[in-house]
Amino acid sequence: MKADLVVVGSGPAGLAAALKAWNEGVRDIYLIERDIELGGILPQCIHDGFGTITFKETLTGPEYAQRYIDMLAKTGVKIKLNTMVLSITPEKKVTAVNSEDGLLEIDAKALILAMGCRERTRFQSMILGDRPAGIFTAGTAQRFVNIEGYLPGKKIVIVGSGDVGLIMARRFTLEGAEVEGVYEIMPYPGGLNRNVIQCLQDYNIPLQLSHTVVDIKGRKRVEGVTVAKVNEHMKPIKETECFVPCDTIILAVGLIPENELLKRSGVQMDEATGGPTVNEWMETSIPGFFACGNVVHVHDLVDYVTESAETAGRSSTRYIERELQRREKPIKIELGRNIRYVVPQLISEKRLEGKVRFYLRVRNPERKIEVKALTHQDKVFAKKFRIVRPSEMLRLEIPAENLSKAEEYCQLRFEVRDEQT
Fold it and tell me: What is the pLDDT of residues 91-149, one digit of tens each?
């Protein structure tokens, strides 16, 4: 088959990208999803907090997904559910398989990759001990409770303090389970501050920072964990070890972009984000390959996922219509003091208009600082922050005219500085 555009993944990013491309005038669009329904992870996220930016309302995850599903139903986008994409080539040939059509091959003019992210497992976290039943990732536990109606355990220990883990600490408490504690190896929480307050402090669930699990005990079922405080080098301190009885361990130790398809296609990857290197159009190193949402980098809010997806949908339309104007030498983004990553990593447009949106994270928490964008020592943009945390993504919109200074140097550096400097 042939198509103008193929969108892989139908979570919030895929839904928004397909809808935006349709509204921009693309009419031959395939939306491919490996699950049996649209929405990605959103159907199991029954808590509120979604849509405050996009819809100016507070919605649950299923409500947010349904808004886009309803809008997409009014278009002619062709949806393939229960369909697994096996490979994509640099020539934009998509090979997929399902039970109805068998093997599918679609030649596309452009691709939008919106596969989302997955959770780190116990073995990726290198937690030692026995291998009993009762160890779940936070997302798996969330599906069991919210979709399947099963309570995985009664006495819970949560390892890591990612947002899903914090939300599940509250959810377990509401369902009558006892959360013994949340143990985070870093000296600061891994989730949003609002989730620490609303999910832990409001329910008197203890958060132990600079602590980690060093051993899991149990033959058939989890019986408990040994936790210990860590030093400044993240090494457990033997004298601080203590045993915490529990029957269930929930891992909330981080998310990884789901990028195997991208890697096999030869797209340039960014080690800091775990996703592809993109420009301000959300285009990867292969022309016509666009990526958006959590497959590029892990976002805090679904509204920001939607924002990047709409950029990809608009840009793919411009690519198909051959309207993208490329610079001979793109402006490279450099990482300065206390900046972990910046997305996009390149600026490729010849004539920038409006504002260019950047997403970034810091390496360490700081207070009363400015995030600056510089060309050599010429300031392009600065924004003050009362506090910055690694767990909270920063979003900057820099006017295009400000970036004209960067063109002659072909580089732009982001860094954190004290307010007075």
Answer: 999 999 999 999 999 999 999 999 999 999 988 888 999 999 999 999 999 999 999 99
Residue ranges, CATH 3.50.50.60, the chain: 1-119+254-324, 121-253
Beta bridge partner(s), residue 8: 32, 113
**Average pLDDT of 222-236?**
95
Nearest to 186 by CA among 167, 165, 159, 205: 159
Q: Which spans in 24-74 are helix H?
A: 61-73
By residue count, the chain amounts to: 421
The tokens of 242 are what? 């203590």
CATH 3.90.25.10 given to domain 1-119+254-324: no
H/E element, 142: helix 138-143
- The answer to whether residue 409 scores a pLDDT higher than 70 is no
pTM of the model: 0.94
Cβ atoms within 10 Å of 413's Cβ, excluding its own = 21
Could you tell me if 5 and 109 are in contact, meaning their C-beta atoms sit under 8 angstroms apart? yes
Answer yes or no: is pLDDT of 421 > 60: no
β-sheet bridge partners, residue 235: none
CA end-to-end span of the chain, whole Å? 58
Q: What CATH superfamily is the domain 121-253?
A: FAD/NAD(P)-binding domain (3.50.50.60)
CA separation for the pair 323, 281 (Å, rounded): 12
User: What pLDDT, on the 0 to 100 scale, is given for residue 338?
Assistant: 95
141/137 Cα distance (integer angstroms): 6
Handedness of CA 223, 226, 227, 230 (dihedral sign): negative
CA 94 – CA 98 distance, rounded (Å)? 13
Burial of 329 (0-12, 13-18, 19+ CB in 10 A): exposed
For residue 266, what are the contacts with CB-CB under 8 A and spacing of at least 6?
A: 90, 286
Distance (Å, whole) CA 316 – CA 281 = 8
